[in-house]
Structure formats: structure tokens, C-alpha cells
Amino acid sequence: MSIIITLILEFVFIINLVFFWSAFLKQNEHPILFSSYKTIFPYIWTISLVGSLIINSNFLQFLFPTNISYFQDLWIWFFMLGFVLILVGIKIISMVRKSFKVDVVSAQEAKLITSGAYAIVRHPVYLAWVLIFTGWSFILDSPLAILFVPVLTLFLAAHSLYEERYILIPKYDDLYRRYYKKVPYRLFAPPYNYLIIIIGIIVAYLGLVNYVFPS
């Protein structure tokens, strides 16, 4: 049962993004629909991600006997890695907030923020979401959440590109074009992407060993 619920929640997250952009692109035809959906969009986003982390967790075996451990005896090491990822994600969010506070006087002018975390990556909040989600999936030892991390990263990267194309570039024009030539769009730019690939290979290997070739 937990597997079905988790897969539904992860599917809801994907559909939520797809529906948001469909409504956004047709907002001139259906302004009330987009305005209403924009309000509930972040709640569906949060509930679907948090739920997918918790429901399939190894620690809920007392509720869902089919839940299993992904890392098994090595869980403590990934607990520590997950804790570090969460701290990094929180630090990025803190840097984002500081960047907004610096420009609070210009908030009414909708000034493009390019300092702090925005000087490192163009979409630091989405990067923080991926890091925190990954960290919690490790800590909670939630197999389906762990497997969902690459999908989450892919869809958030696509979401960020759509945001640039349909919101940021039309709003800031040449100012944003100059900005994105200087700052990488990828959530994990070199050399950090290589570290993520290494972690991904290790995690995939553990899954292969634990479930395809169980001891």
C-alpha cells in the first residue's frame, strides 16, 4: 500500500508542474483558472514531496510491513551524508534570504537579484529543494524517494528553464540575458556534478547489491 501511495504522490508532483505551466501558457484565455491554481500550486508541491519521503520510509514498517531498508547495514553512513546535504540546502536558502534582504528597498521595482547564492547558480532555491529532499530520503531510508531524486532533479531543471523563458527573460530582457551568460543554469554545475554522479553510482550499486543480488 505504501508503494502505491508514494508513487501516486510522486506522480502528483509531476502533474502539478505540468498543469502549472499549461495554465500559465493559457492564462490569457483562462486568467481566473491560473490565478486560482497559482495559489494552491506550492501546497501541492510541498505535500506531494514530503508525503513521498515519509510514506515509504523504512521507519514506518510498523504501519506498512512491505517497507524495506534501501541502505540496510550502511544506513548510518548515509544518515550522516543526508544530514550534510540538508545543512547545505538550508545554508543556500539562508543565502537566498540574505540576498533578498539586501535588495529589500528595491523590492517594489522588482530588481533582478544576482548576488549571494544567485551569483553561484541561477536557481538556488530549486537546488536547495533537491539537496534537502535527497538528504531526507537518505535519513528516512525511503527507497522510492531515493529513486525519485533523479526525476525530481530533471523536472526542477526543466521547471527552471521554463521559468527563465516565459517569466524572467520577458520581464528583465537583456539584463537577464547578460546574467545567464555569467552564471550556470544547471542545478549541479561542474565540479559539483561529478560528486553527485559518484554518489549516484554508489547509491545505485547498493540498490543492485541489496535487491538484485541479496545476501
Short description:
With 215 residues, the protein is an all-alpha fold.
Summarize the structure in words.
By secondary structure, this protein is an all-alpha fold. It has a single domain (2-212), classed as Four Helix Bundle (Hemerythrin (Met), subunit A). It contains seven helices and no strands. Helix 3 runs antiparallel to helix 4 (124-139).
Principal-axes shape call: globular
* Radius of gyration over C-alpha positions, nearest whole angstrom: 19 Å
Main sheet attributes: strand count, strand direction, barrel closure? none
CATH overall fold name: Four Helix Bundle (Hemerythrin (Met), subunit A)
CATH class: Mainly Alpha
| Number of E-state strands | 0
Structural class of the helices, strands and pairings? mainly alpha
How many domains? 1
Helix content: over 70%
* Low-pLDDT residue spans: 102-109
Q: In percent terms, what proportion of residues is strand?
A: under 5%
Indicate the CATH architecture. Answer: Up-down Bundle
Span between N and C termini?
Answer: 26 Å
The helix tally amounts to 7
SSE string, helix = H, strand = E? HHHHHHH
Average pLDDT number: 81
List the keywords.
7 helices, single chain, mainly alpha, 0% strand, Four Helix Bundle (Hemerythrin (Met), subunit A), globular
Give the SSE layout:
Layout: H1 2-25, H2 31-55, H3 75-102, H4 124-139, H5 143-172, H6 174-182, H7 192-212
